[in-house]
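**Reference record**
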Amino acid sequence: MEHAFYEPAGQARYVATPATEGPWSPGAQHGGPPSALAAQVLRRHEPDETLRLSRVAVDILRPVPVGKLVVRARTVRRGRRVALAEAVMEAGDVEVLHARGWFIQRADGQVPEVGTDRRPGPVPAAGAGWPPRMIQAEPTGYLASIDWRFSPADCAGAAAVSPGSAWTRPRIPLIAGEEPVPMARALLVADSGSGVGAVLPARRFLFINVDLTVTLTRDPVGEWLLLEPATAIGSAGTGLTTTRLSDEAGEVGHGAQTLLVTPR
């Protein structure tokens, strides 16, 4: 197993390791690692601890290759209580991903939590439940670099397309020698919502997301994140996956992915 998803290679430069490779195309990254890398760069850009990175919207312009990347950030708007920053990722001088992050001021006083008090069940034991088909067959790359846990209560057995939900944690760091920020941790696994919540068999259909948006109402605590996705697909071949994200204490936010769906 690789030591990290990315190795730093100088100012604004990174090398993606084979751990980033996704299941759809050889040599192309899963959407989670580059989205997380963009969030990490956004959070380091003009850091201000009075603001928290609350929402990141990622547009995947083309497949992100496994290899050398350049990621640059700029401030789009800086206000008294909010700020908007943008990160652009390039591979071989070609833009492959854009990400925009909203930073929102931390509350001065106590704010009541509303609608986020649902506490999930415990993290299942390793080997429990039944994983999606794309994870069953000797996973490599990104799929092998995440620790997946599935609840038996969510699984309909070996014939199920999807288990319905999954607890996740990375087995390796995002960037070698660097602690990931909360938003990067969330984006790293939230891009798997469409796979965990698959409603069509991956052997017969492609369902590739063109974007990923994550909003965190609070920063996740601990190493585990629960994905609870729901997917809808129209006859024109456009789908939408929305994923509730929780840590062991309760809900932390939601993710959304727009899907291109087509028969293989």
